[in-house]
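ok so I'm stuck.
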Amino acid sequence: MARMRILITGITGFVGSHLAEYALSRGDEVFGSVRWRSKMEHIEHLRDRVTLIESDLRDLLSVRTVLEQARPDYIIHLAAQSFVAASWQTPVETFYTNVVSQMNLFEAMRQLGSNARFLVIGSSEEYGLVEPDELPIRESNPLRPLSPYAVSKVAQDLMGWQYFRSYGMHVLRSRAFNHTGPRRGDAFAESNFAKQITEMEAGLREPVVYVGDLKPTRDFSDVRDIVRGYWLLLERGTPGEVYNLCSGGEWSIERILNFLIDKSTLPHIEIRQDPARLRPSDVPVLRGSRQKVESALGWRTTIPLEQTLTDLLEYWRRRIGSRPR
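replied:
not stuck anymore, here's the structure
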């Protein structure tokens, strides 16, 4: 099999670092765009095996330079403001970062005549408000985004369709449902819970976990399964098509919290709601159908969420354990 050249924007992030590991395990050549202030901790162990290119994806000339240096066969655009809650505080920055960066990548590809296969990273948040009779969510469901982040993802999604139709570019579109695992940022509920619990175990805080709304249910997958799905889409997905990546099951945020508490070494942990963690509006239920991607590519999740959450907790124990007590 020929060695592929893959460009990963957002390579230093949660998903980007796992994707870089996966590509390297296959023997492919990995390039990553980074900002001058990017934190390297997630890819420190990969630094001598990947080529990093400093750039500002919001600047077209900078993006052209990245593409000219990387000459990729595959492009996976993971760089984004990806935290739903933060998008309420910074809606303009979220939209500008997510939408303009992708527009520049497409324009640079068009100007340079690139034939790379490009994966748009959408989100289940695009579906937004879902009626009970619309579950499980299929790709044909209407899009009713309920946050600035979700709106930005709809724009990226439809932009991918437009460039496919207008210019014949090899654009694949994904809508991944929630995914987690080691290296997940502590801005996200399940990782924040794991971090709080680990800090309690280390004696760094009182045994009280602060939470937002615990009622919503989400379709969670392991990031390592999602990364495998992204790669299959790049390899064999049909350009122009959109694919859900999901487990087909659902866990409430409360169930995740209780699972992590049960895994704790502490005898008792109090649960206390923090009003600052509540959102102006939230999607109550997200559960997807993986039928399309499973039929087309044979992809399905393989790692149970119990294992994922256990790995996440151990990740935080390794990190917190290195701190002075």
